[in-house]
């Protein structure tokens, strides 16, 4: 019996030794961030760039909706999230709620993708040519600047963090002006890189970037963004130069819609255009044009086609009847929406990142003090395209600013919350219509609580 | 006292075969076995000639006859439930053997080691045991975990929704983890059984629930323990904390539920058949707003007239009743055959459970086949046990809970007034709902959301006595088991649905198919050595190894823009695929020493070591020690309190672990696609390669006391458990590119008491009344937090949210008050719970019921707010919420919401509930014998119900609810759930 015992103990202990080693757990569901940051290979470049471009679109709908509501371009109604018609119209904002936290986090996630790619590029052992490296870096820094500007547009005087490469040691918050400077210098670096990036990128870009598919043409986008920053900073002469080196085409009859776009599709992991809703949508999810958009328009402005009068066919009479949507509130008053926002005709229509029409109006602003004639000419390019007669008003800076803001309001309607940003720059948020008792405007979104600012 | 019938045909057969050979010298002993005290004949007692295979059994009246070769002999008389007796017989002829009913031999055992168990009277832990009778005997439960509610102290069991087929959270002694697993480990016949809740493919593509304020998908899938048929279970043991569960080491911090299924008994083959029939109905309607023309007009211009017109035409519809008013048909059929010979016994069972939901096209269907086999060999020195189970379960769960698209049935109802006309026309075409983005009737009638499971659970155990001597023995125990299942999730949203129409921004039909293959396996090998000294000091040592492997592969496919009404994935214009894989390997050892001094002092000390591929260093051992002692004071000579026949004091300490959630080690890119260019994007959560398991340390002390010969028993326990190295998915500054990170950054503590009182109030021949009262409470505190306080599990401070904060309760609910200050608004932990169970028997009638009172514990109720927005809340026009008594509830809550004041949404979720009630009648044996001539041994009929009486103030369907499913902290958040139901059943059981 003793022998059996010893025998079995031997078997047991040898089993223990054999099976003792447990293999380290593996990450089965995707590559680790380490695999990119420790050295970017040519094979990984394509998906790294693809990821950056894809991630730029995350929470885009929330950001554009929130800023557009802030600028009273439209009302966003969602029966399952009533804060759209509460906080965002009253101006009493929470620092831990989706309208500020979600876009903020999404933009910084894209920046993280870029930073990991840039780290990987610095550590690469792949035989990239100097031109290819410059191209990748120029592209990455341009997109990073765009994403930082998106955050800054919401955060405004709160300022933002620009140095965020180390999660354990995040850089300080820079104030608004310093943030703009930092973004501008990123774009300057990017422009320098792109000028030395040869004739083609080492990666492919989606169709939304078709007019900027090589380093030279992409520089036109970088400069356009830089011009936007300079206009925001009031550096009009620098902006003018940059615009002249951008993809701007300010000839009469130019394609105002030419530009850089976010692409969407329904294929696989791709995403749909978050800014598309069908006509006559219900309170469940709808964008209702603010009544002032129609009321304030000049007669004949074709840009009124961006909204559609809500009507439905009466099943009994067969007659089309108005179908306004009313957001009732017995205490403070109702919101009555008669028009749907209808810029995108399908859920795969592209959304502009920056388009010629904006550049022309930035050009008008850049010139409105120094060269009013050039400013009016630019305004007229836009007016003509909208079916309106040439501008005949006063050319004092004050009046020109008002005209430019009005054209931007109609030209960039519902495309990025431009109206809110522009009115804010000129201290004109007080001119926004207030619809209900207790409603109000606000200058900026609160810094997310988790930033521990 | 149950009489177990033992009867061996085999022995008679042997006797018949060998009888001729021993005819030469034989003596016949006849006699009767009677029960000591009553003198009644003891039926089916085994009577065996000692040292031989020669044996027989007594008949129904206790009479027996046995032929032996020569006299004198010793006869061994035994059966389960009686003390074994050996009588010397020196002359042939009539004898009378008196046997004593024994409580000892029936006494349940509780697990103390991975290879050993002890008598309950010697246990140092308050291990809860639930017998099959308690589990499913009162009223048949739908799922096993649901059947545990109210049956033992120290648990908070919450049903996430009323959708058929489970979705239940079991929390033992408070919340034990914030972001890690908080559900107990389930072990069925030694097999680690998977209890995942795996989200079906595709629902989020429609509901968009995760795109808003909370990233949880809120799909509310069922949890897989629902597959185990409660009817197959012989007993359930609950190890509530580390002090008892340390033997399971790294997976045991949330407690362990050990399930033993039924086994065959030696003797006559028994067949039993049972059939339950019944129905369920909604537990409680929220009700309808009392509309007037003016109130209706408040919903929009022209609605007042529409309301009047519909009222005049008698076309006002109570849509709540329309959707939730079904009586769901219930049918449970079960057949089992069991029996056994001297060395082999078997139990086979087939069951079919069908239950329709209270919403049309929802329901649950489970078929289960079980075969258990036990075989002893090598002169009874080896025992092999095999337990096999095949399950085919299917649940149709409807489309409920939160969404961001207005498409779930629950959310659609929140804006649908009674004058909406949503019924299909003569051609079956449903009108669009002008009050929302979906027509709930159409959604109910046309969508599919199904979980389909095919599952095998197989376990084997070999118990081999290697060595045996007078005072010592050595056993080898080998065990292994596999739990394998395939889960198919099917979601189909046809293009005719209001929200699928292209004209309504729909996807033109969506078909989603998810496949999960899950395989968990476990193996163990143990040596157990027993040694008793001359002074009755028993040492039991055990040492062994365990190994577990886990494998899961989930593939989800979603096809949209479908061709016609096809559901195949290739019939869509856009197809997307996601895959999730998980593999884990754990390895551990366990050693333990148990000392027992004459059943007076019982002490145990042991340690388990575990390592796992889920830890940062896969080969680092984490150690989980345990030690316990129990002293049976009443067994000592100095004990002189006759009225108190038992008094045991006990103390136990143990440690157990909890792994980081899968993937916590890594920062893994997720995939993306833009215009055909595949991409990689950073995940939301930053991984941590240095993460270690959470460590729970529990101390439990208590006493067990028995009075009046154990007619009254009192059990008291106090526990204190600390969880160190709490794994937190803590917030990180979002500018880092991540929104959270995994880190070991805190400690929490749970303290509580559990008191159990059980009494046989009456114990007469014709009337028995047993009553049991349980009282338990738990309080928790975050004792250390190394990261900033953070909110989780809700929709932000404007609507009420949980918040992890040092020095505060783990389950506190915070929110902004009317002044905009962040304050504590409630706590989801109940103040205390009390259950009261009763078993009354009068002659052949038994009547049993179980009351459950949960006092305190708050919910975040957002269903009200949504119906306020839709203007259809039943209490919209009442004035009760406004402290000033001015504003009606609807506008008041909307106003509070607009001001970011969460106060009105946190509600007391106390309840008093008649969980189970049953009345049964067993036909007398005499009657059965006359009518069925002995073919039927048992015939029982009865009625039962669950949740028949519910008393609560909570302003919705049921305070027991969870929008976020079963795991984690955030049970008790309500957003338009599938309402709970009550059940009424009729039973018939026949034994052959």
Tell me what you see in this structure.
The complex is a heterodimer of chains A (453) and B (992). Chain A has 453 residues and is mainly alpha-helical. Chain A has a domain of 297 residues: Alpha Horseshoe (Serine Threonine Protein Phosphatase 5, Tetratricopeptide repeat), CATH 1.25.40.390. In chain A, the strands form 6 sheets. A two-stranded antiparallel sheet of chain A has the order 1-5. Chain A has a two-stranded antiparallel sheet with strand order 2-3. In chain A, strands 4-12 form a two-stranded antiparallel ribbon. In chain A, helix 7 packs antiparallel against helix 8 and helix 8 packs antiparallel against helix 9. The longest helix of chain A has 26 residues. The radius of gyration of chain A is 26 Å and the shape is globular. The model of chain A has no long low-confidence stretch (mean pLDDT 92). With 992 residues, chain B is mainly β. Chain B contains 13 helices and 50 strands. Chain B has a 22-stranded antiparallel β-barrel.
Question: What is the level 1 CATH name of the largest domain in chain B?
Answer: Mainly Beta
Alpha-beta classification of chain B: mainly beta
Runs of chain B in which pLDDT lies below 50 for 5 or more consecutive residues are: 1-7, 13-17, 19-24
| Mean pLDDT across all amino acids of chain A | 92
Largest sheet descriptor of chain B: 22 strands, antiparallel, barrel
Strand order of the largest sheet of chain A: 1-5
| Overall body shape of chain A | globular
């Amino acid at each position: 019996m003793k022998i059996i015992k010893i025998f079995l103990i031997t078997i047991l202990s040898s089993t223990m030794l054999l099976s003792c080693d447990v293999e380290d757990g593996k990450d089965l569901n995707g590559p680790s961030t380490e695999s990119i940051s420790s050295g970017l290979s040519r094979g990984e470049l394509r998906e790294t760039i693809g990821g950056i471009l894809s991630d730029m679109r995350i929470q885009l709908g929330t950001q554009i909706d929130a800023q557009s509501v802030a600028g009273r371009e439209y009302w966003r109604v969602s029966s399952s999230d009533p804060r759209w018609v509460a906080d965002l119209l009253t101006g009493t904002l929470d620092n831990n709620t989706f309208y500020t936290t979600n876009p903020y986090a999404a933009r910084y996630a894209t920046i993280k993708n870029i930073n990991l790619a840039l780290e990987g590029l610095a550590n690469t052992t792949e035989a990239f040519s100097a031109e290819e490296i410059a191209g990748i870096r120029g592209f990455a820094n341009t997109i990073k600047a765009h994403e930082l500007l998106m955050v800054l547009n919401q955060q405004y005087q709160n300022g933002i963090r620009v140095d965020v490469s180390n999660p354990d040691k995040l850089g300080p918050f820079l104030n608004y002006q310093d943030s703009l400077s930092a973004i501008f210098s990123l774009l300057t670096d990017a422009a320098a890189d792109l000028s030395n990036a040869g004739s083609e990128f080492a990666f492919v870009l989606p169709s939304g970037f078709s007019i900027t598919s090589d380093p030279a043409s992409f520089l036109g986008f970088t400069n356009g963004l830089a011009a936007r920053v300079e206009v925001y900073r009031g550096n009009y002469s620098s902006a003018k130069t940059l615009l002249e080196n951008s993809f701007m085409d300010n000839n009469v009859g130019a394609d105002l819609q030419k530009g850089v776009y976010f692409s969407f599709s329904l294929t696989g992991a791709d995403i749909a255009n978050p800014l598309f809703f069908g006509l006559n949508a219900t309170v469940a999810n709808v964008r209702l044009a603010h009544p002032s958009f129609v009321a304030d328009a000049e007669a004949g402005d074709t840009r009124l086609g961006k909204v559609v009068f809500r009507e439905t066919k009466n099943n009994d009479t067969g007659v089309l009847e108005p179908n306004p949507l009313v957001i009732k509130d017995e205490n403070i008053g109702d919101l009555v929406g008669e028009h749907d926002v209808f810029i995108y005709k399908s859920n795969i229509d592209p959304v502009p990142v920056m388009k010629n029409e904006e550049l022309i109006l930035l050009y008008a602003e850049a010139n409105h003090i120094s060269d009013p004639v050039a400013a009016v000419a630019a305004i007229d390019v836009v007016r003509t395209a909208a079916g309106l007669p040439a501008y005949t008003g006063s050319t004092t800076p004050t009046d020109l600013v008002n005209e430019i803001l009005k054209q931007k309001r109609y030209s960039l309607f519902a495309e990025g919350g431009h109206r809110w940003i522009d009115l804010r720059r000129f201290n004109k948020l007080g001119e926004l219509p207030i619809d209900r008792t207790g409603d109000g405007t606000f200058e900026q979104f609160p810094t997310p609580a988790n930033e521990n600012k | 006292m149950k009489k177990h019938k033992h009867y061996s045909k085999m022995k008679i057969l042997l006797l018949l075969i060998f009888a001729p050979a021993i005819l030469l010298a034989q003596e016949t002993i006849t006699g009767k076995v009677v029960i000591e005290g009553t003198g009644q004949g003891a039926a089916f007692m085994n009577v065996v000639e000692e040292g031989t295979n020669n044996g027989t059994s007594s008949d129904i009246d206790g009479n027996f006859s046995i032929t032996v070769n020569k006299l004198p002999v010793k006869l061994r008389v035994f059966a389960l439930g009686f003390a074994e007796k050996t009588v010397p017989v020196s002359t042939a002829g009539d004898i009378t053997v008196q046997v004593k009913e024994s409580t000892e031999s029936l006494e349940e055992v509780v697990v103390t080691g991975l290879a050993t168990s002890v008598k309950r009277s010697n246990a140092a832990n308050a291990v809860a045991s639930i017998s099959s009778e308690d589990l499913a005997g009162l009223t048949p439960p739908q799922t096993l975990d649901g059947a545990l509610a109210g049956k033992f102290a120290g648990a908070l069991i919450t049903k996430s929704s009323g959708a058929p087929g489970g979705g239940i959270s079991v929390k033992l002694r408070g919340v034990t983890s914030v972001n890690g697993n908080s559900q107990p480990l389930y072990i069925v016949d030694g097999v680690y059984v998977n209890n995942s809740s795996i989200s079906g493919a595709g629902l989020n593509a429609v509901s968009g629930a995760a795109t808003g304020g909370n990233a949880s998908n809120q799909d509310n899938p069922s949890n897989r323990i629902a597959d185990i048929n409660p009817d197959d279970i012989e007993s359930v043991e609950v190890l509530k904390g580390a002090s008892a569960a340390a033997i399971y080491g790294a997976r045991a911090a949330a407690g362990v539920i050990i399930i033993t299924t039924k086994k065959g008994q030696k003797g006559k083959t028994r067949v039993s058949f049972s059939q339950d029939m019944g129905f369920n109905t909604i537990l409680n309607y929220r009700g309808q707003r009392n509309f007037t023309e003016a109130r209706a007009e408040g919903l929009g211009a022209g609605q007042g007239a529409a309301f009047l017109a519909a009222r005049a035409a008698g076309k006002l519809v109570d849509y709540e009743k329309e959707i939730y008013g079904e009586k769901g048909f219930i049918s449970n059929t079960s057949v089992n055959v069991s029996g056994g010979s001297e060395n082999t016994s078997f139990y086979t069972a087939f069951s079919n459970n069908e239950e329709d939901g209270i919403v049309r096209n929802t329901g649950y269907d489970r078929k289960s086949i079980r075969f258990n086999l036990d075989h002893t060999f090598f002169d009874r020195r080896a025992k092999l046990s095999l337990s096999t189970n095949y399950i085919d379960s299917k649940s149709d769960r409807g489309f409920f809970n939160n969404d961001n698209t207005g498409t779930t049935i629950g959310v659609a109802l929140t804006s649908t007034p009674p004058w909406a006309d949503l019924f299909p026309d003569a051609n079956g075409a449903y009108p669009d709902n002008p009050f929302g983005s979906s027509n709930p009737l159409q959604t109910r009638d046309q969508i599919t959301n199904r979980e389909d499971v095919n599952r095998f659970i197989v376990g084997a155990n070999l118990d081999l006595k290697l060595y045996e001597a007078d005072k010592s023995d050595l056993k080898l125990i080998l065990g292994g088991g596999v739990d394998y299942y395939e889960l198919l999730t099917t979601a189909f949203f046809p293009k005719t649905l209001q929200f699928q129409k292209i004209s309504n921004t729909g996807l033109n039909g969506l078909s989603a198919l998810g496949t999960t293959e899950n395989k968990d396996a476990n193996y163990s090998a143990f040596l157990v050595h027993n040694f008793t000294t001359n002074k009755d000091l028993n040492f039991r040592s055990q040492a062994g190894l365990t190994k577990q492997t886990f494998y899961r592969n989930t593939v989800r496919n979603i096809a949209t823009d479908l061709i016609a009404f096809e559901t195949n994935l290739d019939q869509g214009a856009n197809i997307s695929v996601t895959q999730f894989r998980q593999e884990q390997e754990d390895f551990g050892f366990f050693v333990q020493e148990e000392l027992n001094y004459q059943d007076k002092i019982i002490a145990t000390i042991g340690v388990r070591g575990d390592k796992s591929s889920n830890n940062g260093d896969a080969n680092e051992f984490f150690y989980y020690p345990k030690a316990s002692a129990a002293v049976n004071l009443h067994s000592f000579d100095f004990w002189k309190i006759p009225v108190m026949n038992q008094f045991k004091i006990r103390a136990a300490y143990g440690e157990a672990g909890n792994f980081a959630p899968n993937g916590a080690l890594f920062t893994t890119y997720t995939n993306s696609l833009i215009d055909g260019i595949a991409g990689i994007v950073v995940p939301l959560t930053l991984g941590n390669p240095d993460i270690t398991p959470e460590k729970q340390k529990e101390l439990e002390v208590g006493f067990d006391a028995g009075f009046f010969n154990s007619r009254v028993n009192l059990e008291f326990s106090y526990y204190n458990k600390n969880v160190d190295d709490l794994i937190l998915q803590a917030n990180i500054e979002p500018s880092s590119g991540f929104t959270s990170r995994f880190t070991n950054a805190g400690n929490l503590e749970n303290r509580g008491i559990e008191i159990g009182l059980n009494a046989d109030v009456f114990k007469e021949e014709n009337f028995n009344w047993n009553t049991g009262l349980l009282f338990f409470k738990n309080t928790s505190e975050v004792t250390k937090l190394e990261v900033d306080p953070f909110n989780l599990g809700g929709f932000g401070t404007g609507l009420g949210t949980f918040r992890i904060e040092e020095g505060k309760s783990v389950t506190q609910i915070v929110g902004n008050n009317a002044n905009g200050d962040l304050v504590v608004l409630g706590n989801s932990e109940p103040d205390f719970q009390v259950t009261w169970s009763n078993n009354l028997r009068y002659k052949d009638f038994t009547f049993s019921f179980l009351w459950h009172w949960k006092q305190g514990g708050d919910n975040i109720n957002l269903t009200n707010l949504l119906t306020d927005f839709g203007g259809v809340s039943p209490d919209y026009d009442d004035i009760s919420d406004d402290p000033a008594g001015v504003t009606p509830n609807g506008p008041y809550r909307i106003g509070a919401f607009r001001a970011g004041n969460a106060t009105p949404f946190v509600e007391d979720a106390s309840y008093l509930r008649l969980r189970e009630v049953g009345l049964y009648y067993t036909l007398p044996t005499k009657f059965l014998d006359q009518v069925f001539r002995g073919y039927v041994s048992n015939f029982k009929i009865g009625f039962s119900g669950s949740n028949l009486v519910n008393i609560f103030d909570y302003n919705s369907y049921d305070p027991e609810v969870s929008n976020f499913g079963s795991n984690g902290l955030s049970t008790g958040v309500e957003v338009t759930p599938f309402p709970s139901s009550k059940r009424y059943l009729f039973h018939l059981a026949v034994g052959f």
